[in-house]
Amino acid sequence: MRNPINTIREWNEMNRKVIAFIAAVVLLIAAFMVDAYKAPLEAANQKNITLTFLTWQTPLRDQYEAAFQKYSKLHANVKIQFSAIPTDQYPQALQIRVASGDAPDLIQLWPGLQAVVPYAKSGLLADLSHEPWVKDLYDGPKQAVSYNGKVYAYPLETSVIGVIYNKKIFADLKLEVPRTWEDFLKVCQKIKEAGKVPIAMPAKTAWCPQFLPIYTLNGNLVYSKYPHFDDALMAGKATFARSEYKRALEMFMELNDKGYYGADPLGITIEQAEQMMVKGDAAMTVNGSWTVAELQLIDPQYPAGMFPVPAPVGYQTTIPVGQGSCYGIYYKSKNLAETKKLLKFLTEESVYNSFSKYSVALSPSKKIKTDTPAAITDKMAPAMEKASYQFTNQTWAPGIQDAWQKNFQALLSKTVSIDAVIKEMDEVAVKCVQRFKESK
């Protein structure tokens, strides 16, 4: 028979545990009810915010809309308005908005001297040096968005420039990827004889022709032997005339004179050139790795490949590498903290990759892994490991690149000579470098 005292003790202990359990449940329910009551009140009391964003990435309009809708679902009080302006109109449009006091909160910019440095020097960009993502940036991309030791933007894709080609056309014509400039000319001739345009050259779009002469050809001729040419140019110790820029222009025009750009390159826009590639009317084009993505947006099955513009015998083939763009924040943003949150959201791996799959570029951050397609990595990555250099427009004083673009169209129209262009460019360089130094 059990001891009745022990039975009473056990009964009391059980009652104590039951009462304690019931009390705990009641407290949890009360706390839940309080939080449930507070949540809608807090949400109702949140200030509605409208953030603005300006970009030139018109082909990615749908991707931006999807990302911003996702952000607004996570932050119900935040609405994002964005405008996408064509590339050639973008710099002036941004300048007008900044001058009128209507600068966007989040701004897409070109890195280095072309945009980040001038805007940072003018005090128009917020200092982002203490943002948590800064410590994960690779050195190269970080340098492209820095000024005087401070970080003013988040670098996006690391892009490469080379020859984008149609693998099927190459296979059908039994063509091999050329390893020298001399072989490249032979490939162009065979493609022309097959009734196709060897190189789609969208010279009507002002910024496109530059990729062949001053990004790739001059890289092989100038930077392969004089890697610090741009530093010397900025220091007034080098000129275009005393380098092999002239030969680069002669090679550029040789392709035109042989009909390898087709009948009327000055009448072709970038959009038309991409259609020529997709339809199989053109076999190659010289542009950035982002072009692979744009072609496969038009036709997901497009058989794209990419290889370096090869150097002449006796020179080293080099790869132009640079940050395609970056995100900066206007220093007078009325919603600075919220804009920083939006920027952090855009740089999260899943969101970043929703854009990077269209730009097919390398990651700027150790925390972000991207799947760069084999179309780019197969031949460009090994060459890039051997010899690469920064995009020239990211190391030149503002104004030099604009003058080059105008002159490429003039060269193709035969309204100016190569010697005249070289002479003018040296004069422009002196003025632009001086103006840049005086603005410091």
Can you characterise this structure?
The protein has 440 residues and is of the alpha/beta class. It folds into two domains: 49-157 and 324-365, Periplasmic binding protein-like II (D-Maltodextrin-Binding Protein, domain 2); 160-321 and 382-438, 3-Layer(aba) Sandwich (D-Maltodextrin-Binding Protein, domain 2). The chain has helices at residues 4-45, 61-74, 90-99, 116-121, 139-144, 167-172, 181-193, 212-223, 229-234, 245-257, 270-279, 290-298, 336-346, 349-359, 374-386, 400-412, 418-438, and strands at residues 49-55, 78-84, 106-109, 146-147, 150-151, 153-155, 158-166, 197-199, 282-288, 304-307, 319-323, 326-329, 388-390. Strands 7, 8, 9, 10, 11 and 13 form a six-stranded mixed β-sheet that branches. A five-stranded mixed β-sheet has the order 2-1-3-12-6. Strand 4 (146-147) and strand 5 form a beta hairpin. Helix 8 (212-223) crosses helix 10 (245-257), helix 11 crosses helix 12 and helix 16 (400-412) runs antiparallel to helix 17 (418-438). The longest helix is centred in the N-terminal third of the chain and has 42 residues, at 4-45. The chain is globular. Residues 1-44 have low confidence and may be disordered.
Q: Which CATH architecture of the largest domain? A: 3-Layer(aba) Sandwich
Rg (C-alpha, Å):
29 Å
Proportion of residues in β-strands = 5-15%
How many E strands? Answer: 13
From the N-terminal CA to the C-terminal CA, the straight-line distance is 99 Å
- What is the average of the pLDDT values? 87
**What kind of assembly state do the chains in view correspond to?**
single chain
* CATH topology annotation of the largest domain: D-Maltodextrin-Binding Protein, domain 2
Number of helices: 17
Report the top-level CATH class of the largest domain. Alpha Beta
For the sheet with most strands, the description reads: 6 strands, mixed
Any idea what the CATH superfamily of the largest domain is called?
Answer: Periplasmic binding protein-like II
Taken from the alpha-carbon principal axes, the silhouette is globular
Helix content: 40-55%
Order of helices and strands: HEHEHEHHEEEEHHEHHHHEHEEEHHHEHH
Structural class of the helices, strands and pairings? Answer: alpha/beta
Q: Which regions have little confidence, pLDDT < 50, spanning 5+ residues?
A: 1-44
Overall number of structural domains: 2
